[in-house]
Each structure stands twice: as structure tokens, then as C-alpha cells.
Amino acid sequence: MRKTLLALVGCLFAHVAAAQSPITWPDLIDPTAQLYEDPFRDLSFEQLEKLRVVAKAEQTLEDGVSATETRDEIEARLNDAKASLAEQGIDAPNLLSQRWVVAERRKKAAEAGNAALDGELVVLAGYAIPAPPADDGTPVAYLVPERGMCSHTPPPKPNQMVRVLLKGDWRPATMHEPVQVRGRLSLSDTTHDIQVVDGLVPMRAAYEMEATGTLTKQDLQDTADSRQENAWAAAIVERLRASGQLPQNKNGDSN
User: Fold this and answer.
1) Residue 51, exposed/middle/buried by CB under 10 A (0-12, 13-18, 19+)?
2) Where are the alpha helices (DSSP H) in the chain?
3) What tens digit of pLDDT does each residue of 87-123 get?
4) Looking at domain 20-36+114-255, what is its CATH homologous superfamily?
5) How far apart are CA 1 and CA 5, in angstroms?
6) How many CB atoms lie within 10 A of CB 139?
7) pTM of whole model > 0.85?
8) Residue 29 has pLDDT above 50, yes or no
9) Which of 65, 215, 217, 249 has the fewest CB atoms within 10 Å, counting from its CB?
10) Are the beta carbons of 185 and 209 closer than 8 angstroms?
């Protein structure tokens, strides 16, 4: 009966583990949004600097020349930069005409979440940032991939931040507390200003998760301690069995 019960429990845990797939932070990024044409990607730093010279000079000529520079000086700098790029096979006006389109593509690549994960039960590890509760009183935390984000460094991209609705007893006790969260993930673009170390920070997340459980550093330590104790106990049992001091049950197993 005991073996049957253990088998049933094992099957139950296997089913739960299968239903909640471990994912990593790169999995949250929309892979389709990363495939786009970017004519600026392979340019060298020097080439990009010359493009900036062209863009700035054209804007200055359009807005009006200041008293500190003559129009001839600005046009000479503009023509020199264009000529240098043209010698390298780079059409500066054509490239600059695409910059806003490329900027929009880059923005989408940094913000778009992976539609394949929408509604999925997942397990994700990261660092938790305490946040004010939701309007209905549900406790909230933000999960980020690296320690320090949103406080001493800028927030991550939206598709690298998860707004977590905490359903259990656990709450982050400190800023950037390491934790593994499991629950249902959904694509939900939200922005909330929260107070962190350096003041108010806009927390824009592409995802929201209804957490059904958490695993903290202390939980992992307790599990490791329990395994060590079990291993120690098993070693004692084995020694007693080998010495004949431990009676055997009918199935040949130790009581």
C-alpha cells in the first residue's frame, strides 16, 4: 500500500513538473521581432560618427546657422563627411532616410513578448523587486533577470520584466531577492511608477504572471539540508543492515 501511494505521489509530481515548463529569460523575447533588416548594424564606429556629422549638419542648415559658424563651414563639413562615406560605398542620404524605420524595428525587438508563452504555466528564476499592491489588493512584485536592475541601473526592456501577482504567503523581504516563481504567464503590457532606491522608476513589463508558488534561496537551502540528513540516515541504516542489527521485513526491506 505504501509503495502504491508513493508511486501515485511520484506520478502527481511528474505531472505538475510537466505542466509547468522551466523557461529562461531569452525565451521571453519574441523571436520573430528579432529578424529585421538593419543597414546600420554592420557599420563601424567611425562610419556611424560620420553619419551623425551629416545628420547634424543638415539639421543645422535647415534650422538656421548660428553666429558662431558660417554656412560655408557647415556645408564644407557636411560635404567632407558625405564624400568620405561615399568612398566606402555608403550612401549617407539613403541611410539616414531609413533611420526612423529602423528605430521602430529596434523598439519592437526590445519590447515584444513571445506569443508562444501567452497563457502557459511556466517556472522562471530571477530577482524580485517589491511593489505596491494591485488595485484589488493583490500583492505585487517585479521579476528581473539581473540584480541591481531598476535601482542602480536602468530597468530592463519590457520583454525582460514580469509583473508578478503573488497568490501565496511569500513576499520579497529585500530588493532583488533571488527567487524561482511558477505560475501562469500572460502577455500584458503594463506601466507603473514605483519607488526604488534612486526614486520613482517607471516599471514597464510586457508580461504578467499569476504566481502559484515560489522557491527561495532559503527553500533551496532547507531542501539541501533535508537531503543531507536523509543521506546520513540512509548511511546509518545501511551500516546497521550490514551488521545484522537491523531486522528485515517480509519483503526483505528494513523497517
Assistant:
1) buried
2) 2-19, 45-63, 71-87, 92-97, 99-111, 217-243
3) 999 999 999 999 999 999 988 888 999 999 999 999 9
4) Nucleic acid-binding proteins (2.40.50.140)
5) 6
6) 19
7) no
8) yes
9) 249
10) yes
